[in-house]
Amino acid sequence: MLGLARRARQLVSGEAIVLKNIQTNQAKFVFLAKDAGSATGKKFTDKCRTYHVPCSRRFTKDQLSQATGQSRTVIGVVQPGFARKFEELLRME
């Protein structure tokens, strides 16, 4: 599903870009690698909590990178439909 969202250009990645998208309310869902550094983890979980953006820390960097085809630690979903579907799928597990 992440690969599909990436091909549809509905993902943003990279720490600075995702952070800006959270702060401007463009990010609707965030994937943060569970093996991200402690400073990165704290920064993004705090920002997501402040701006009321759902955040998932279920996957590792390798899993996120394999799903998108890019080596990333943090990924933001900007399309509300994809964000809802990701939340729904993660609740089912």
UniProtKB/TrEMBL annotation:
Keywords: Ribonucleoprotein, Ribosomal protein
One Pfam family named in its UniProt record: Ribosomal_L7Ae
Domain Ribosomal protein eL8/eL30/eS12/Gadd45: 2-78
Matches recorded under InterPro entries: Ribosomal_eL30-like_sf, Ribosomal_eL8/eL30/eS12/Gad45
Gene Ontology cellular-component annotations: ribosome
SUPFAM superfamilies membership: L30e-like
Protein name, entry field: Ribosomal protein L7A family protein
Origin species: Limosilactobacillus antri DSM 16041
